[in-house]
Amino acid sequence: MTVSDKMNMLMMGRSCVYLDLDNGVESAMIDCIRSGEYQGYGPFTGLPELHELIKEDLRIDTPSEVCVTDGAVQALHHVIGWFSRQGSKYTFLDSDPAWIHSRNFARDMKTKLVPGKITPADISEGCVVNLCSPQNPAGHVYTSEEKSQLSEQCRQVGAWLLCDDAYVMYEPEYGSDWTHVYNQNPERTIVAWSASKIGLAGVRVGAFVCHPDLMESLVFGRANALGSSILGQRAAIAALKSKDKWLSALRSQVQENIQYLVGRLGPLGVTITGHSNSVNVSLPAHRRAVDIAAQLEVRRFEVADGTKFYGMEGYDANYLRVAVSVPRSWLERFCTLFEELVSE
C-alpha cells in the first residue's frame, strides 16, 4: 500500500487527535507563513513563549528550563542517549510491556524490566526510571501519591525519574489542582512533553524539561542543532494558549467514545482497556490481531495490532490499538466492520 493510499484511510492506529478543536492553530500557522517568520531559524532551544506555556501546561513551578525538540520521541531519544553515553553506570528501568522504542533507545544501557507498574522497591542507585502515565500500551495509571513515592525513592538512592508525559492530560487526576511530580525533586527529574496529543501530531513538536544546572550538559549534541520548526512552535503556542476552550471537551469526548466501544464490542466477549486517547481492544482466542488489522486495512481502516508494535516475549499482544480521539462516525464504522470480521 502506497503512502497516498494510507493518507486516504481512516487513521485509527496511532494516538492522534482527529477532532475539531477551537484552538486557533490554523490562523497561527497562516500568520506565520504570511509574515515570513518561517524562513529563518528560531532560537536554539525554542521560542521563549512556548517554554513558559509548556511549564504552565505541566504545572511546573520550580527551577526548570525547556528545550524544544522535533516531537517527544526525539526528546526521549536524546535524553536516554545522554544517559547511555555515560557508560554502564546507569540501568534503564521500564515496565513490561512498554512502548518498545524507549527501550531501543536505551540499548547501550543495562535494562531492568518490571511486570506492570514500577514500585519504589524496584528502584536502586543508578536507575533511570521510565515513567509513563497513562502507561503505553497497558494503560496503567500512576496516582499522584504513587509518583511522589517513586520520586522520593529516586532522591534517596540517587536515581533519576524520566517522565514520558505524552498522555498525561488524560490522567483521571489531571485538573486544576494537579501538580507535576517534577516539583518534588527537580534536580533528578527530566520530563518529555508532547504536542501530539493536543492535536499536533503531524507538525512534530515536543520538548524536554530539566533543572537549569543540567541543561547545558543535556542540550549538547542534539540532532536538531538549529532548532525546531517555527511553524510548528507557533501552532503549539496557539493550542496551549486556547487550552481552556477545548481541553475539557476533548477529555469528555474521549471518555464517551471509550464507553461507546465498551457498549458495542463488550457483547462480543472482548475487553477494552486504557485511559488515554487510544485503547486496547482484545481479540477472542480464535482470532488473531494481525489478521483482523490486515482485513481492516483492506477496508480502509488503519489500526495497530499489538503483536507488531508491542509484541514481547511472554506477553499476550493479541489486541488492536485503536484511537478514540476521533469522530464518533469513525468509531461506528469501525465497530460495524469489527463485528463482521470477528463473527466470520
Description:
The structure is a single chain. With 344 residues, the protein is α/β, with parallel strands linked by helices. The chain has 2 domains: 3-20 and 244-343, Aspartate Aminotransferase, domain 1 (Alpha-Beta Complex), CATH 3.90.1150.10; 25-241, Aspartate Aminotransferase, domain 2, CATH 3.40.640.10. 39% of the residues lie in helices and 17% in strands. The chain contains 12 helices and 13 strands. The chain has helices spanning 3-7, 25-35, 48-58, 72-84, 100-105, 144-157, 212-218, 230-241, 243-265, 289-298, 306-310, 328-343; strands spanning 10-11, 65-69, 91-96, 110-115, 127-132, 160-164, 189-194, 206-210, 272-273, 278-282, 301-302, 304-305, 319-323. A 7-stranded mixed sheet has the order 2-8-7-6-5-3-4, sandwiched between helices. Strand 5 (127-132), helix 6 and strand 6 form a beta-alpha-beta unit. Helix 3 (48-58) packs across helix 8.
